Amino acid sequence: MSVAAKANAPRTYTAVLTPGEDGWVCAQVAEVPEAISQGRTLEEAKANVVEALMLALEWRREEGEAFPEPAEVTVAPVTVPSS
């Protein structure tokens, strides 16, 4: 695959969607932390974070920065000892 074709190939990143106390869903892309948005529903938050991701990647391209590779993300609970 050519470099140009690889740059234009679809990329799949990991969006972290978290319900807020205010009823909105917060969304952020783990590999591209500047891609952050929110929505009233899960579907709206996902659509909005895709738009934010596209803008963040466009900015990176204009600045000559490399696109991050999609990463394997593990979500795990952590416990803080009581004080």
Model description:
- This protein is α+β, with helices and mostly antiparallel strands.
- The protein has a domain at 12-62: 2-Layer Sandwich (Double Stranded RNA Binding Domain), CATH 3.30.160.250.
- It is 33% helix and 17% strand.
- The chain has two helices and three strands; from the N terminus they run H-E-E-E-H.
- The protein has helices spanning 3-8, 42-62; strands at residues 15-19, 25-29, 36-39.
Which characteristics define this entry?
83 residues
Oligomer class:
single chain
In percent terms, what proportion of residues is strand? 15-25%
For the CA atoms, what is the radius of gyration? Answer: 16 Å
Largest sheet: 3 strands, antiparallel
Question: What's the total helix number?
Answer: 2
Please tell me the CATH architecture of the domain at 12-62 by its name: 2-Layer Sandwich
- Number of beta-strand segments: 3
Helix content: 25-40%
Shape: globular
Low-confidence stretches: none
Instruction: Summarize the helix and strand pattern as letters.
Output: HEEEH
Distance between the termini: 56 Å
Strand numbers in spatial order across the main sheet? 1-2-3
